Amino acid sequence: MNRSCIAGTGGYLPERVMTNAELEALVDTSDEWIRERTGITQRHIAAPEQTCSDLADAASRRALANAGLDAGAIDLVVVATSTPDHVFPSTACRLVERLGMPSGIIAFDVSAACSGFIYALDVADRFIRTGGASRALVIGAEVFSRILDWQDRGTCVLFGDGAGAVVLEAGKEPGVLSTHLHADGRQTPLLNVPWGVSQGYERLADERGKVSMRGNEVFRVAVRTLGALVDETLEANGLARGDVDWLVPHQANIRIMMATARKLGLPPSRMVSTVAEHGNTSAASIPLALDQAVGDGRIRRGDLLLLEAFGAGFTWGSALIRY
Ligand code: UT7
Questions:
Q1: Among 188, 246, 248, 264, which Cα is nearest to 221's?
Q2: What is the CATH number of the domain that holds 188?
């Protein structure tokens, strides 16, 4: 059976940077509070005309270039996003056209909020292992700035825009070793966007199309759940604490990330952290972090990586990868 190997990574962040100081002018917050409670110092915000597929397109081109592949070599595109260009077609289909991929390939979006990239990676890995695809483009892309209530200090300081992409290629090397996906729909009120198209557009008038979160409650569930997920992932692979080389976590909050690193028995220097510069870019945060650490040479071929995420749904998942 084939294994899925990472052939290339790419990332894209919009040019515009929004600092904590700018947020101080919008809501009752402070740079000190944001940094202490979240680790965030700035985030990138898409230009008004930039859409999800613009960000995904840029990240994808970089991932393809780093893999040394032409878009024509791809036979599967999976985009994880909660902020697509259209209700339909999928953002993945938009990319098929934009990147000039051949007609007839497989392309679809995955909806799993902040865990979306892990879900997309799992699906693409299964396609590759069973021979349904040989080269997959797996993308996390978000324009969360569009679904933030810029008067809600509990959420607007946390998120940013961006996209990250990974090219997975069928091979005989270890690559993706295991993936672990979970969901529990019972806690929707803690984290959601309360509006969706099937509720009708007249409902949008009351601003219900924005992120709503009971952050402190989400925080506690996230730390507990990610701890159990670390145990599950290590156990499934016969590994012990300290055996993993790098933690590449979803970048929601530095305190959640550090708790997971501690659970893994890793020092902070072995955790890839972009939360300070990017904020929480939801499904884009893991591939962006991965791309940064691969690009600056921290993550090297042969390293053992643990990717993990927790998000709305709740959804959560991990992937253990021999890079
Ligand atoms: O990525 C998907 C999953 N999402 C997450 O994992 C997010 C998880 N949650 C968190 O990261 C944290 O809970 C937050 C960063 C959202 C909040 O941090 P916290 O330490 O849990 O704060 P809190 O919600 O308990 O609020 C503490 C205080 C409150 O004031 P009072 O009631 O103590 O007077 C809040 O009203 O901080 C206040 N507060 C703020 N103050 C200044 C909330 N947001 C802000 C703010 N600036 N932006």
A1: 188
A2: 3.40.47.10
Strand positions, DSSP E, 111-160: 135-143
How many whole angstroms separate alpha carbon 80 and alpha carbon 116? 5
Query: How far apart are the CA of 152 and the centre of ligand 1, in A?
Result: 11
Pocket lining: 225 vs ligand 1, CB cutoff 6 Å? no
Domain match, 230 and 283 both: yes
CA distances 113 to 23, 62, 98, 241, Å, are: 24, 24, 24, 28
The residues, ordered by sequence, that sit 6+ positions from 82 with a Cβ below 8 Å of its Cβ are: 111, 113, 116, 142, 144, 147, 193, 282, 283, 312
* Residues contacting residue 30 through CB under 8 Å, at least 6 positions apart: 20, 24
Average pLDDT, the chain: 97
| Confidence (pTM) | 0.98
**What per-residue confidence (pLDDT) applies to 32?**
98
Residue-number span of the structural domain to which 130 is assigned: 3-173
Atom of ligand 1 nearest to the CA of 29: 47
Instruction: Give nearest CA residue, ligand 1 atom 11.
Output: 253
Same domain, 95 and 149: yes
**Does residue 205 surpass a pLDDT of 90?**
no
Kindly give, in sequence order, each residue whose CB lies less than 8 Å from that of residue 133, ignoring residues fewer than 6 positions away: 75, 76, 106, 124, 127, 170
33 pocket-lining for ligand 1 (C-beta < 6 Å): yes
Going by C-beta distance under 8 Å and a sequence separation of 6 or more, which residues neighbour residue 173? 3, 5, 322
CA atoms of 162 and 144, how far apart (whole Å): 9
Tokens describing residue 225: 């759940």
Which of 125, 277, 153 minimizes the C-alpha distance to 213? 153
pLDDT per residue as tens digits for the range 146-175? 999 999 999 999 999 999 999 999 998 889
Are residues 190 and 160 both part of a single domain?
Answer: no
Question: CA 120 to CA 12: how far, in whole Å?
Answer: 18
Element (H, E) at 230: helix 215-236
Residues 30 and 169 in one domain: yes
Same domain, 129 and 185: no
